[in-house]
Each structure stands twice: as structure tokens, then as C-alpha cells.
Design goal:
Blueprint lengths: L7 E6 L4 E8 L3 E9 L5 H5 L7 E5 L3 E2 L18 E3 L2 E2 L12 H7 L3 E4 L3 H11 L2 E6 L5 H9 L10 H4 L5 E3 L6 E6 L5 H8 L3 E6 L5 H5 L5 E4 L10 H12 L4 E4 L1 H8 L5 E17 L4 E13 L1 H5 L4 E7 L5 E6 L4 E4 L14 H10 L6
Parallel strand pairs: 3-4, 4-6, 5-7, 6-8, 11-12, 11-13, 13-14, 14-19
Antiparallel strand pairs: 1-2, 1-9, 2-8, 3-9, 10-12, 15-16, 15-17, 17-18, 18-19
Length: 370
């Protein structure tokens, strides 16, 4: 049952900037790296996306909660964002399919949030100054105390977070009688990725983040998948080593988001912390192999180093971002391995890029080579 009081709350950024608003969700204090998402819908899928683990989310859409919460619209089993910042926090919702309000949802999952913030001003500030750590509190009003707590929060750069959101035990998804089998390394995998495989008659075994290749190979899969996830790819040697072993055996491999960055790392291409990252549902990407454009769903704060990709003799570029020319897709020369930085499974977002799952099927069947 909703227990909601418009208590004052504070948002403090690492550069000392302060925003005052109203308490939302659980009364308390939370910290994380602040970032913003420009999507106009799909807030529940965003809240539960494991790639957002450790981050405070600013939603640029002015209304959050207006269509309520529906139990099936999730990308993991719990809220993964560290906190929420929004303009209008709508407890009253207008959808028959919804099962509870956003306030009940946040209280049940212990999420601290702040509303009635000028999110336009906040996003402009983050856009100009870059991603940084922040703290939200609806229980502490002393700025010096908040500054002290914020100073203790580690930078996202150098953090290994995937093992914290990964499954602890292997599990299966899909039809055991399916025509193809895929072994998925769970670094923070989204549920719609698994649904996308199931829709293509693929049976998936999902493995914990630090599983060795030899263990995954026992499933006798037709291909391997490296998932999305949170944190810094440059401090994940365990995953890089697994990918190198998959490549050495010349097995079909598909990577998404963090999986894309790790495939680059496995081919001696470095990754970097981006100034702001890409988070939204309308990022234009060009497939330079097929010479067509697609509108994509994105969520990442790290990326591959463009010059190192361009100078590599191991990979070729398949996709580029039309906004900033960053590298959005690669494939490994002489291997059956490819990856994209964005999210073809979307959820939320457009379906322009779901052909990539079909490409992976064709690679596993030997019908697509390069």
C-alpha cells in the first residue's frame, strides 16, 4: 500500500552542484554514478536492466510512473538502478494492465528517488561536465555530511560489477528440443535477449560471469553469446580469457554491449570511459556492410577506442554511430565472431536491429561467412 509523503530531498553532485526536490520511493540515502536516459517510454525495463547497476538514473521524459508497473515488463528479477531522478513522479497511473504504482514498486524494492527536479537543467549540466558520482538523500539535510559520504564512493572507472549481477548458478532457457543451442556468459544479461533466442528456436544455457570455457563447452553448443552488463571492461580479464579460448576454437560468437567491448579487448583493442555515454532509444547507427541505417536502443558508459579499432588488423568495422562516429559494431577477420555496442533486443526501443539475432543463427548454421 502506498505510503508517500512529499518530504524534502537533496541531490548532490561530485562537483558540488546541489539540486533540491521532493522525496520519492524509499526514504533514505543512495549513491552512484549519475547518468541520463532520453527514452520517452519503457521506464520499468530501464529500472531493471542490469547494465545500470551502480548508477543513478535521470529520466529526461517529464512524466515517470504515469502508466504504472506491470509485473512482466522487466529485464531482470529486481530493480538494478541505484536511484532515480525525475521531474514529475506520477503515483496515480492510467493503465488497466498495471498491477501497482511506481511508489509501491520502489518501496517494495527499497529504491531511493527524488522528484520535482529541473531535469532539463540537470541534464545540461551533466552533458557539459560529464558523468560523475552523486548522492540522493531524503533523510540527511546537512550538505557537509552528504559531501563526506559522496567522497567515499568509488569511480565507475576500474569497477568490476558484472559478477555482482550475474546468475550464481547455471540455468536453461527455452525449448530443450530446439534446433540450435547457445551457451551464454551472463555478465548482466537482459531477459529479452533470452526471449529473442527462444523466438528463433534456440535453447540457451546461461552461465555465471566467471565460468571457464571448458565448462561452457560441456553443453556442446552451436554458438556462444557474451552479454551486456555493468562496469569497466578493462578490469575483466576472466571474461577476456574465455573469449580468447572461444576464438581459438573458431566457434560462432555474438556479443552485445559489454560483450562487444570484451571482444575488442580479446583482440588487443582497448576500451575507454566515455564522457557521457549513450543512453536512449533513438540513436542512429549505420551498418556499413549493408549500407543501411537503423534507429537503436543504447545504454553504455564505456566504449572501444576508435583509433585502435581502425588500426587493427584483426577486426573490421561493421557499424558506426552517426552522431559521434563511435564504433558500434565489429567482426573478427577469419573468425565467426561479431558484436555490436547497442541493444538489438531493445526492450525498450525500436526493433530495427533484431536482424542481428538472425545473422547469429545463420553464422551457426554456416550460411553466413566473411
Amino acid at each position: 500500500m502506498t505510503n508517500y509523503t512529499k518530504l524534502p530531498a537533496i541531490l548532490l553532485l561530485a562537483d558540488g552542484t546541489v539540486f533540491y526536490g521532493k522525496a520519492a520511493g524509499k526514504i533514505g540515502t543512495t549513491t552512484g554514478e549519475i547518468c541520463f536516459n532520453t527514452g520517452m517510454t519503457g521506464y520499468q525495463e530501464i529500472f531493471t536492466d542490469p547494465s545500470y547497476f551502480g548508477q543513478i538514473m535521470v529520466t529526461t521524459n517529464s512524466h515517470i510512473g504515469n502508466y504504472g508497473i506491470q509485473k512482466d515488463e522487466i529485464e531482470s528479477d529486481s530493480i538494478k538502478i541505484a536511484g532515480l531522478v525525475c521531474k514529475n513522479y506520477n503515483i496515480v497511473y492510467s493503465r488497466k494492465q498495471a498491477t501497482e504504482s511506481i511508489q509501491d514498486y520502489f518501496q517494495n524494492d527499497n529504491l531511493v528517488a527524488i522528484s520535482d527536479i529541473d531535469t532539463r537543467a540537470l541534464v545540461r549540466h551533466i552533458r557539459d561536465k560529464g558523468a560523475m558520482n552523486a548522492i540522493i538523500s531524503s533523510e540527511i539535510t546537512d550538505l557537509d555530511e552528504l559531501k563526506q559520504k559522496l567522497a567515499e564512493v568509488p569511480s565507475m572507472e576500474g569497477l568490476e560489477l558484472s559478477s555482482q549481477v550475474s546468475t550464481k548458478e547455471p540455468y536453461f532457457h527455452g525449448n530443450p528440443e530446439a534446433s540450435l543451442k547457445v551457451a551464454a556468459l551472463d555478465l548482466g544479461i537482459k531477459k529479452n535477449i533470452l526471449r529473442s533466442f527462444e523466438n528463433r528456436d534456440i535453447y540457451v544455457q546461461v552461465f555465471p560471469a566467471k565460468t571457464k570455457f571448458a565448462e561452457m563447452e560441456k553443453f556442446n553448443p552451436d554458438g556462444y553469446f557474451i552479454s551486456n552488463g555493468p562496469g569497466d571492461p578493462s578490469v575483466m580479464p576472466y571474461a577476456v580469457e574465455t573469449i580468447k579460448e572461444i576464438l581459438a576454437e573458431d566457434k560462432p560468437l555474438f556479443g552485445i554491449c559489454l560483450g562487444h567491448q570484451l571482444l575488442a579487448e580479446a583482440n588487443d583493442i582497448g576500451t575507454m570511459k566515455m564522457f557521457n555515454g549513450h543512453r536512449g532509444l533513438n540513436h542512429p547507427v549505420k551498418n556499413i556492410i549493408k549500407n543501411h541505417c537503423e534507429v537503436t536502443s543504447q545504454n553504455h558508459g564505456f566504449g572501444v577506442i576508435p583509433d585502435e579499432v581502425r588500426n587493427s588488423d584483426k577486426v573490421e568495422i561493421t557499424h558506426v554511430n552517426l552522431n559521434d562516429k563511435s564504433i558500434e559494431g565489429i567482426r573478427v577477420k577469419g573468425k565467426k565472431a561479431f558484436s555490436v555496442q547497442y541493444h538489438p533486443e531493445s526492450s525498450p526501443g525500436p526493433h530495427d536491429s533484431r536482424y542481428l539475432f538472425d545473422d547469429f543463427v545463420n553464422v551457426m548454421k554456416g550460411e553466413l561467412v566473411w
